[in-house]
Amino acid sequence: MSCCDDPQAPLDPLIDSANREGLTGTTPAALYKPEPDREQITIPPDGRPVQAQPSWRKDFPIDWPRDQYVARRDFAKFMVLTSFAFFIGQLWIGAQNLLRRRRGKPPVMKVAMLDRVPVGSFIVFRYPTEDDPCLLIRPEPNVLLGYSQACTHLSCAVVPEVAESRIHCPCHHGFFDLQTGRPIAGPPRRPLPRITLEVRQRAVYATGIELRTV
């Protein structure tokens, strides 16, 4: 009597054996499933299940699948934080533009008495706020020049060299033309913002700011 005649006899696992020839559906489906790769199964050192492991072990995996999970999680955190920082930066730029529009035209502000600026010299003043250093230069008796003191390269404080008819940035050896404020050498590519000036009863007033690109 063969295994096919006795229902209690064990089934032959080989599907191509003589006793199984022509039969179907008699072998458990799990018999021919591939074995899982042991390297892809997380087994903690103490043998306890993953749910029972301390939280710190999740950040210091010892096998490949957990390490890949942590790497993906850290990458996702990085992307979220980067996107959030970009969003905050855009809000900040928008707020600054809104504030500039609300401020409107800069105020008229007294800078100095004309007698306090000898010919061939300069003074530093603040305009339109205390955080904005500017230069008042008097190269000739009837010529007054006003510029922002922040270099248009990396905002270093520039220094007039009146005798050489130029303005020097000592940080990166940039130079601007004294009469126009336009860059003539070094890294700067944009001219210095011009401060418009007026003389009223021997007093020098700042009346506005001209932002230029060329």
Polypeptide structure, described:
The structure is a single chain. This protein has 214 residues and is α+β, with helices and mostly antiparallel strands. The chain has two domains: 55-103; 109-210, Rieske [2Fe-2S] iron-sulphur domain (Rieske Iron-sulfur Protein). It contains two helices and ten strands; from the N terminus they run H-H-E-E-E-E-E-E-E-E-E-E. The strands form three sheets. Strands 5-6-7-8 form a four-stranded antiparallel beta sheet, with no helix packed on it. The longest helix has 40 residues, at 64-103. The protein is elongated and about 120 Å long. The termini are far apart. The mean pLDDT is 79.
| CATH class annotation of the largest domain | Mainly Beta
Total number of β-strand segments?
10
Structural Rg: 40 Å
**Given the helix and strand composition, which structural class is it?**
alpha+beta
Taking pLDDT < 50 over at least 5 consecutive residues as the criterion, the unreliable ranges are none
**Helix count?**
2
**What's the end-to-end separation, in Å?**
104 Å
Major sheet, described briefly?
Answer: 4 strands, antiparallel
Mean pLDDT: 79
Second CATH tier, the architecture of the largest domain: 3-layer Sandwich
List keywords for this structure.
214 residues, alpha+beta, single chain, 25% strand, Rieske Iron-sulfur Protein, four-stranded antiparallel beta sheet
